[in-house]
Give the backbone structure.
Amino acid sequence: MKTKLFLLIAAFGFFVFGAKAQKFGYVDTEYILGQMTEYKAAQKQLNELSSKWEADLKILKEEVDKMYKDYKAEEILLSATQKKEREDAIVAKEDGMKKFEQEKFGVNGELFKKRLELIRPIQEKISVAIIAVAKKNALDFIFDKSANMNILFSNAKFDRSDDVLDELGVTPIDTDK
């Protein structure tokens, strides 16, 4: 019994006196990205590309709708063979539209690939800067305030976002976070 008590006290002492305080900080990557002109330029390029493809997709949808409406209006007058040909044409056009949508906006579509191409280097640059800030400030943890961390309260003295911007060589445009 005395041995167990001694071990319990020793273990407690080890944890109390052996544990060091953890140092942490947080960053707001949305704020950091908003301050970076290269990110804004990449977003603008992605938005323009997306808008162009959305307009192209809208045209394709309108063509499919027109083909279907025309078919419905003339259906009574068409022979069985003509109906089959028109239906096949509508289905083919619709399949082409869906294929275009997948190629441009799908999980591995061109927009996704372009986003990786443009945004990944910026994210990597930020990651390197965050690590440098952590090392400079001897921080054990850095949290991202903007990544659904649900930080309900944060003391601004632990915010390292401007330090990351300094590390990136970016001067903050607006100081409101």
